[in-house]
Every structure is written in structure tokens, then in C-alpha cells.
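ok posting inputs for the flavin mononucleotide job
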Amino acid sequence: MENLILTESDIRQRIWMELQRATQDRHHDWRTPMLATVGRDGTPNARTVVLRHADAKLARLDFYTDSRSPKVAELAVQPQVTLVFWSKRLSWQLRVRAYVSLQTTGPEVDAVWARLSQSAAAGDYLSATAPGDALPLDQAACCAQASTHNLAIMTAQVQEIDWLELARSGHRRAVLGTTGFAWRVP
Ligand SMILES: Cc1cc2nc3c(=O)[nH]c(=O)nc-3n(C[C@H](O)[C@H](O)[C@H](O)COP(=O)(O)O)c2cc1C
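and the output
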């Protein structure tokens, strides 16, 4: 992408517009960021997740997971995360520092489950075995479905976005805080 004259507010608006698009568009590169956490042993851990909701006003990003997954236990101990998004189309990378809170019950979870339970993805949250468990030798136990779901909403409260644009005419980088903005050497 060639450098256009982008102001601080253009960049901020465009980032959130693209994040919102990614929640609707299965082919958007930013739909599947990398979520990095601190593992229970203090070492880094990372995995792909699907971006489900982006709220520019509240600076919130939502993801869904199984409440029994190892990352949920990690987040309960250390809620500070980094999310990495790369878009080839935009030539933009985002490194988002955020705090994650978890919901496993309540009206938001109920509303999401009401929708998810009608979709093919419902089974992901109904398995009798937890993600990361040893695969049972008994195939029936492996694929059994529980009657209650294990859906958790992970909400990332964005603290800071490190934006990097790659361009032949010169790379650009800036750090966007909740209120501040600073250009950085790429
Ligand atoms: C394209 C893709 C999308 C994924 N989306 C999610 C997701 O939205 N939520 C999730 O919990 N796991 C998702 N996963 C699986 C995770 O990457 C990971 O393997 C799983 O959640 C277990 O992670 P953990 O052991 O760190 O908890 C996705 C994997 C891929 C390849």
C-alpha cells in the first residue's frame, strides 16, 4: 500500500472500521488474530482465535471459547494479553495490548448461546471432554455431548494498539493509547 496522508484520527477510525468488518467477513485477515497469553509456567503461549465483536466506543474486542480450555485458566491468573493481527491487503499489523475478562454466565452469554446453539458450532461448546484433555480411548466418551454448554466470552479491554504499516515508500508505525497517539520508528 502506498503511503497516504493519514491523520491520527484517520488511523484510529480505520483500524476500528476494519476490526468491525472482520467480525462480519469470514475472509478478512483480521478475523483470526493470534492471542498471546502468559502460560501457567510463566512461558509465552499463543493460539488463533476468531474475532466475534469489536466495539470502537468501548475499545472492546470479544472472542468465544470453551470455559474449560487451558487459556481460560491462564487468563484467570494473568489477564494481560497481546493480540496480533496482520492484513496483507492493508499491509497493516496490529499488536494490541489488552486485559481480558471472562463471562461464563449472565445475559450476554445467554444471548450468544441462543444464537450459537442453532449453529453448527454448537457442538464445540457441548463436548463432554475438555479441550486439551487426553483423547479417551473410548470413542463414545470422546464424542459424547453434555447437556449444558461451556461457552465463555473473552472480552479484551484494549489498552494500547501498536500499528505498523509496511509500504515501499516507507514503513510507518504509531502507538495508539486509549487517548494518546505517538509516531514511532518502524
Ligand atoms: C482458524 C482457527 C480459529 C480458531 N478459533 C478459536 C476460537 O475462536 N476460540 C477458541 O477458543 N479456539 C479457537 N481455535 C483453537 C485455538 O487456536 C486453540 O487450539 C484452542 O483454543 C486451545 O487453546 P488453549 O489450549 O491455549 O486453550 C481456533 C483455531 C484455528 C486454527
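notes: Residues 8-24 form the longest helix (17 residues). The mean pLDDT is 92.
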